[in-house]
Design a protein that fits this description.
AlgI; MB_O-acyltransferase; mainly alpha; membrane; transmembrane; 0% strand
Length: 561
C-alpha cells in the first residue's frame, strides 16, 4: 500500500474534491446510495461519531442528532421517500398511544386491525401493486396499465419493526415511548434501517433509557464485526457475483452444465456473505453507538436439518414470523381460516398450472399432485393427526407469506413453499426417528455430516428460484445442471479460467465452516492488538475493498426487500 494507492482510493471514494463533488455528497443519487462499504460512509461516519462522542452524556440532544443522521442516511438511499418513513412513524406512534389508553377490548382490537392494515397496505402498494395488476391481467385478459412505482429501500424492514411495536403494546408486553422523538429514534435507527436485523421494541427501547456505556470489549467486538462484514460483503460476495454468478444466471444457456452448477454453489455463498456481512456491519456500527442488536446469522450452512437452518438464517425475520404470524394464525395449537387459506390457494394454483401445461408435458401435473400428496402425508402419518395438520398448515402459510415478503413474484412463493414443505417433512421424520439422548459415537458424526450435506443442497436448490430473474430461468438452470457429465478435463479448464472466483468461493466456504475454536482464537488475537493496530487493519481492509472492486460498491441484495 503506497501513497499513490491511498490517493487513488481517496479519489475513487470521494472524487476530485470540488464544490460540485461536495454537493453530490449530500444530494440523493439513485445510482450511488450511501452504503456501509463506501469511502463516503466511512468519512461521514467518522465526522458523525466525533460529534456523537461529545453528546454521549446528553439524552434528547443525542437522540435528535442520531435521528437527523438516520434520516439523511435514508434520504441518500431512497430520496424523497424518507418523508414516507416520517409519515408512517407519525401514524403508528399516535395509533399506539390510542391502543395503549383504550380499555375496551373490542376497540383495542379494532385499532390494532386498522394499524396493521395501514402498514401492510402501504407496503402492499409499493411492493405488490404491479404484481396484482399483472396477475389479474394474466388470469382475466385484463389490460390495466402497470404503475410506475419505485420501491423505497428497506420498507419491508421498518414496516415489520413498526408492526412489532404496536402489537407488543396491544399484547401489553411494553408501554409506549414517552414521546415521538424516542419512537422515531427506534424506527429510524440507521445501522439496521434499510436491511435489518429487524429489531423488537421490547429489546431495543430499554437501551435508549440506559446510560450510554461503551467498554473496550464493545469496541473490539464492533471493529471485529465491521472488518469481517466488509471482507465478506465486498471481497467475497461482490467479486464472485460480478465476475461469475450474475453472468451465468443472466444467460444460463450460454454456459456449460458445470458452470451452472458452480454458479449455484457460488450464489449460496454470495447471498450468505452479502447479507450476513451487512448484518455484521450493522451490529458493529450500532455497538459503537452503545446499542446491542440481535445476532442475525449463526453459520446456517452447518445446519443438519431445514428446521435448524431457520434457527440460524436471518434469525430476526424467522423470529418475527414465528411470534407475529405463525402464533397469530394458531401455531401448533389450532387451525384458522387464514392458516388454511394460503396453502389451499397455493395447491389449487399449482394443480391449475399442471393442468394448463398437460398438453405439452405431464411433468408439471405430476409435480403438483405429488406435492399435495407429500404434504398430506406429513400429517396423515402422524400419531396426532389434527395437531400436526394445524402445525404444518400454519408453517406452510408462514413460509408462503415469508416468501412473498421477499418479493412479489412466483419464484419467491415457490421458494417459500419449498421451505414450508421441507419443514413439514422434517417434523414427520423426527416423529418417526427421534433424536435420542445418549453419548455420541462415530455413526452420529457420520449421520450429521450427511445431514448437513443434504440440508445444504436442499437450501442451494431453493436459492435457484430466489436468484433467477424468473421462473423459466430457474427451470433452465436445473435442466442445464441435469445435463452434467463427468469431464474432469473440461472442469479443470473452467476452474483455471475463473481461478480467482473459485479461490474466493473456497475461502467463503472455509470461513463459514471454520471450527468455533479457530474463530475464537482469531478474535482473541484481534482483541490483543493495540488500538492503533486495529485502525491500521480497518484502513487496510478498506484499501482491499478498493483494490478488489471491479465495478464500484455494489448494493446489498436485501436492499430490494
Amino acid at each position: 500500500m503506497t501513497i499513490n494507492s491511498i490517493q487513488n482510493w481517496f479519489t475513487q471514494a470521494f472524487g476530485t474534491v470540488t464544490l460540485e463533488t461536495v454537493e453530490n455528497w449530500f444530494v440523493y443519487n439513485p445510482k450511488e446510495p450511501l452504503l456501509f462499504n463506501t469511502g463516503l460512509f466511512l468519512g461521514m461516519f467518522l465526522i458523525f461519531y466525533f460529534v456523537y462522542a461529545f453528546l454521549r452524556k446528553t439524552f434528547y440532544l443525542r437522540l435528535v442528532y442520531v435521528i437527523m443522521f438516520s434520516l439523511f442516511f435514508y434520504y441518500k438511499s431512497s430520496g424523497i421517500y424518507f418523508l414516507l418513513l416520517i409519515l408512517s412513524s407519525v401514524v403508528d406512534y399516535n395509533l399506539s398511544g390510542v391502543i395503549y389508553r383504550e380499555t375496551r377490548k373490542s376497540w383495542r382490537k379494532f385499532y390494532i386491525v386498522i394499524s396493521v392494515i395501514l402498514n401492510l397496505g402501504l407496503l402492499g402498494y409499493f411492493k405488490y401493486m404491479n404484481f396484482m395488476i399483472g396477475t389479474y391481467n394474466d388470469l382475466f385478459q385484463g389490460d390495466f396499465a402497470l404503475h410506475k412505482i419505485l420501491l423505497p429501500v428497506g420498507i419491508s424492514f421498518y414496516t415489520f419493526q413498526s408492526i412489532s411495536y404496536i402489537i407488543e403494546i396491544y399484547r401489553k408486553e411494553i408501554v409506549p415511548t414517552n414521546n415521538y422523538i424516542e419512537y422515531l429514534f427506534f424506527v429510524s435507527f440507521f445501522p439496521q434501517l434499510v436491511a435489518g436485523p429487524i429489531v423488537r421494541a421490547k429489546d431495543f427501547l430499554p437501551q435508549i433509557y440506559q446510560k450510554l456505556h461503551l467498554t473496550k470489549d464493545d469496541v473490539n467486538n464492533a471493529l471485529f464485526l465491521i472488518i469481517g462484514g466488509l471482507l465478506k460483503k465486498t471481497v467475497i460476495s461482490d467479486y464472485i457475483s460480478i465476475n461469475f454468478v450474475d453472468r451465468v444466471f443472466d444467460a444460463p444457456t450460454s454456459y456449460t452444465a458445470f458452470e451452472n452448477l458452480m454458479a449455484s454453489y457460488g450464489y449460496a455463498i454470495q447471498i450468505y456473505c452479502d447479507f450476513s456481512g451487512y448484518s455484521d456491519m450493522a451490529i458493529g456500527v450500532a455497538m459503537l453507538l452503545g446499542f446491542k442488536l440481535p445476532t442475525n446469522f449463526r453459520t446456517p450452512y452447518q445446519s443438519a436439518s431445514i428446521t435448524e437452518f431457520w434457527r440460524r438464517w436471518h434469525i430476526s425475520l424467522s423470529t418475527w414470523l414465528k411470534d407475529f404470524l405463525y402464533i397469530s394464525i394458531g401455531g401448533n395449537r389450532k387451525g384458522s381460516f387464514a392458516g388454511f387459506l394460503f396453502p389451499a390457494l397455493f395447491f389449487f394454483g399449482l394443480i391449475i398450472w399442471g393442468i394448463s401445461y398437460s398438453s405439452v408435458s405431464h411433468v408439471p401435473l405430476i409435480i403438483a399432485v405429488s406435492s399435495l400428496i407429500v404434504f398430506g402425508l406429513t400429517f396423515i402419518l402422524s400419531k396426532d393427526r389434527e395437531k400436526t395438520m394445524f402445525t404444518n398448515v400454519n408453517l406452510l402459510t408462514t413460509m408462503l407469506l415469508g416468501g412473498l415478503w421477499h418479493g412479489a413474484s412466483l419464484r419467491f412463493i415457490i421458494w417459500g413453499a419449498l421451505h414450508g414443505m421441507g419443514l413439514a417433512v422434517h417434523k414427520i421424520f423426527v416423529e418417526f426417528f427421534p433424536n435420542k439422548e445418549r453419548e455420541k459415537n462415530a455413526w452420529d458424526y457420520i449421520w450429521r455430516f450427511f445431514s448437513v450435506l443434504l440440508t445444504f443442497h436442499f437450501v442451494a436448490f431453493c436459492w435457484l428460484f430466489f436468484r433467477a430473474k424468473d421462473f423459466d430461468t430457474a427451470l433452465q438452470i436445473m435442466r442445464n445442471i441435469g445435463d452434467l457429465e463427468f469431464d474432469p478435463q473440461q472442469w479443470l479448464v473452467i476452474i483455471q479460467g475463473y481461478k480467482n472466483v473459485f479461490w474466493l468461493m473456497l475461502a467463503g466456504y472455509v470461513w463459514h465452516f471454520l471450527p468455533t475454536g479457530i474463530t475464537r482464537n482469531m478474535k482473541l488475537a484481534f482483541d490483543r492488538t493495540p488500538l492503533v493496530g486495529k485502525a491500521i487493519i480497518l484502513g487496510f481492509v478498506y484499501w482491499i475493498v478498493y483494490a478488489t472492486a471491479t465495478a464500484g460498491p455494489q448494493p446489498f441484495i436485501y436492499f430490494q426487500f
